[in-house]
Design goal:
Blueprint: H1 8-28, H2 33-60, H3 63-83, H4 93-118, H5 126-157, H6 159-167, H7 172-175, H8 177-197, H9 205-212, H10 217-249
Length: 274
């Protein structure tokens, strides 16, 4: 089976669906037409630039350029985690926690996949390393952002209950344990749902792409199973690292709740807590 190449006319035809959605927004007064247009324009520009960059990286096959691209991906993903927080930690902590947890999960899981299962030659070949890292970061980013948001929002909401536990003699780990469990559960839920629905409800993107490219369905399934296991492991590592670090930051060595370390609403992430 040969690979089917899309023409620009095919893309223009598909874009008519977006115009239809924008027209519905105007008719129904949803106010989403501008957002749809901006999002579509950003998507086209970003993907076009990424395609050009990847074409160059694939030709170079340099560990330094591959590492630079991977670092940029992690930094942008960390920025997305910070932007999704309703009530983040003050200063650079939310960005730092998100970025560090994503870097940990991305490095461990992508390195494991490249050196043990996929084994490209060389192992840092960007044709394999960057797509795998991108899938890992995309899924882990969702889990980390949900987990952090759930923990920090719940800590502010349940301040009285947490301080009551601390007053009764609970240490900071026990006082926050129920919030930590709930945040970790929320952060992991999307990958659990994705694995549960794979095959029966949806055909995952990587498997669909390989089938469209002419790969035998059985081989595409094996790759997709591998990817889902990698994503589950990465999400678990990232969520646990971010949530536990945030819980540690919300307390101090004297087992006090330190909500002063949370950024105040509308202050741009500034706080006076040390």
């Amino acid at each position: 089976m040969s690979f089917i190449t899309l023409s620009y006319a095919d893309l223009v035809l598909a874009s008519l669906l977006l115009l239809f959605a924008g027209a519905l927004s105007v008719v129904l007064g949803l106010g989403l037409e501008r957002n749809l247009a901006v999002a579509a324009a950003r998507m086209v520009v970003q993907l076009t630039l990424v395609g050009l960059v990847l074409k160059t990286l694939f030709a170079l096959v340099s560990p330094w350029w591959t590492g630079t691209a991977a670092l940029a991906m992690v930094l942008f993903a960390g920025r997305e985690v910070m932007a999704r927080q309703k009530r983040g930690l003050g200063g650079a902590w939310t960005y730092g926690l998100g970025t560090a947890s994503l870097m940990l999960a991305g490095t461990v899981i992508t390195g494991l996949a490249l050196t043990t299962q996929i084994r490209p030659d060389p192992w840092f070949d960007p044709r394999y390393a960057l797509p795998i890292l991108g899938m890992v970061l995309g899924n882990t980013m969702n889990g980390v952002s949900i987990g952090l948001d759930r923990l920090l929002t719940a800590a502010a909401r349940e301040r009285a209950a947490i301080e009551a536990r601390l007053a009764l003699g609970h240490d900071r780990r026990r006082a926050l344990s129920h919030l930590v469990r709930d945040a970790c559960r929320a952060g992991m839920m999307h990958i659990v749902n994705a694995m549960s629905a794979a095959g029966l409800v949806s055909l995952p993107g990587m498997m669909t792409g390989q089938i469209l490219a002419g790969v035998a369905p059985v081989e595409a399934v094996k790759y997709q199973i591998l990817i889902m296991f990698l994503l589950a492991g990465a999400t678990g590592i990232g969520v646990l690292a971010a949530v536990f670090a945030a819980a540690w930051r919300l307390t101090d060595d004297r087992h006090r709740l330190r909500l002063d370390r949370l950024a105040q609403a509308g202050d741009g992430g500034k706080t006076t807590g040390m």
